[in-house]
Amino acid sequence: MIRLVAGSIGSLSIGVVAQAVAFVLLARSLGAAQFGELTTISAVTALANAWCGLGPGEALRRIVSRDSGRYAEALGHTLLMILLTGVVLTVLVVASMLFAATVDRGDPTIWLQILLLFVPINVVFPSFLSLVENIFLARGDFRTANFINGGTGVARALAALVACSIVGMNSLEVWAVWWAGIHIAIGLMCVVLIWRFGRPHWCVLRQEIWLGGSLALSSFLIMLRHSVDVLVLSAIASPDFVGVYGAGRRLIGAALVVPGAFDRVIYGRLAVAGRDGPLASLALATKYLPYSVGISAGTSVCLFLIAPYMPFVFGHAFLAASDVVRTLAWTVIPTAVQFLAFDALNAAEHHRISTVVSGVTNAVGAMMVVLLGASYGTAGIYGALYFSDVSRGGGLWVALHLAARRQRHEEAYQVAVEKS
Questions:
Q1: Can you tell me the distance from the alpha carbon of 404 to that of 249, in angstroms, rounded to the nearest whole number?
Q2: What is the mean predicted confidence (pLDDT) over 94-106?
Q3: Exposed/middle/buried for 199, CB within 10 Å: 0-12, 13-18, 19+?
Q4: For residues 329 and 303, is the Cβ–Cβ distance under 8 A?
Q5: For the whole prediction, is pTM greater than 0.70?
Q6: What are 291-315's pLDDT values in tens digits?
Q7: Does the pLDDT at position 320 exceed 80?
Q8: By the 8 A CB rule, do 56 and 78 touch?
Q9: What Rg, from alpha-carbon coordinates, does the chain have?
């Protein structure tokens, strides 16, 4: 377990470093205003991506981890869901963002070109890459899964390096072309990697639609809570400050892959334990909880220590990003606690419970971000974010304990009936 977690963190850390390099290059080349537009696009498309495929990675890994013979139908179902939902979501997002105020107000065709390149890539490709990564995780091939995850970050960083430092790119329109091109190349490489496992059996698994819909709703509300601060700032602040805030939030988001690396290693074991219900998944999740807290706490300390050096890396225009990182660095701990309880519930196929709990807490958190952000600015946003993370983590663990208690009572009642 230690070896797998270390390897996963190591490979994902490569992706984090590469992602940080890309952030720095893009921030310096695009400037705060255009980087703010990029941050807004990323926030909106992240919300749409939560619905794309209806939880494709989790569904395939859960199904194949339990029965490898169902790989073809699991692959066919998830690919169909990604394609169908991806097309619908792309049309809706482009139409909704078409008339947004941008730096290039005088030429709306430039904004349309940017959206037509960014939106389908940001909506569809993360779901497809998650699917490919989970194919290898379900087979126990962590090395290839780590290569896909870390390699994607490296490829994006190399694209940013060539575009910004060698070609001299300085507009969002040009970067959209580079962004689309590198993702198409990554997608083709992924198809080659999974081709040997066999063709998909094109079908729709009705039960997985409901389970995936519950997971997608929960993911959407999570992303809404994580993106609503950027959307609120986009409405009440200048693009320059949105870019500064976005740089800090992106660093926090990149750091979450460290506790996420631990979760991706243990989820297969949670899925197997989940066949026996939430009682077994609770026992396993409780065993892993101290490790998750320790890993996330170390990550938060590192973020707090490196925060003052952000202006030296991103440029003087991003001076205020240091305060953002130092203030929000400790949100990594409750977020990691959330991950573990959320995965334990889903592994036991209690998607509805996890969706309701996380949905309610994230919806309340998003409302608080809007209200407190509009009233008190960034200070209100910070308070709402901490409240949302802590309440969601606590709610998920309470729900997991209640589900396990219910199973224990049902089993005890069944034993009593059999004895009588």
A1: 36
A2: 70
A3: exposed
A4: yes
A5: no
A6: 889 988 988 998 888 888 877 766 6
A7: no
A8: yes
A9: 21
Q: Which two tokens stand for residue 16?
A: 């984090």
Answer yes or no: is pLDDT of 105 > 60.
no
- For tokens 């003052």, what's the residue? 308
User: What is each CA distance from 91 to 40, 96, 102, 176, 222, in whole angstroms?
Assistant: 17, 9, 20, 17, 22
Compute the distance between CA of residue 133 and CA of residue 136 in angstroms, rounded to an integer. 6
Per-residue pLDDT, 205: 83
Helix H, strand E, coil C: the string for 110-135 is HHHHHHHHHHHHHHHHHHHHHHHHHH
d(CA 265, CA 181): 31
Instruction: Please spell the DSSP secondary structure of 335-348, one letter per residue.
Output: HHHHHHHHHHHHHT
Query: Tokens for 288?
Result: 């892993």
* Contact of 133 with 57, CB cutoff 8 Å: yes
Cα–Cα distances (Å) from 85 to 53, 91, 117, 123, 339, in that order, read 6, 10, 17, 9, 25
More confident residue, 352 or 189: 189
Structure tokens at 259: 């506790």
Q: What is the pLDDT of residue 123?
A: 93
Count how many residues are written for the chain: 420
pLDDT range class, residue 144, cuts 50, 70, 90: confident
224 Cβ partners below 8 Å, 6+ apart? 47, 362, 363, 366
Pair 145, 96: CB distance under 8 Å:
no
Of the pLDDT bands very low, low, confident and very high (cuts 50, 70, 90), residue 101 is low
Angle at 38 between CA 387 and CA 164, to 5 degrees: 130
Q: Check residues 46 and 245 and name the one with the higher pLDDT.
A: 46
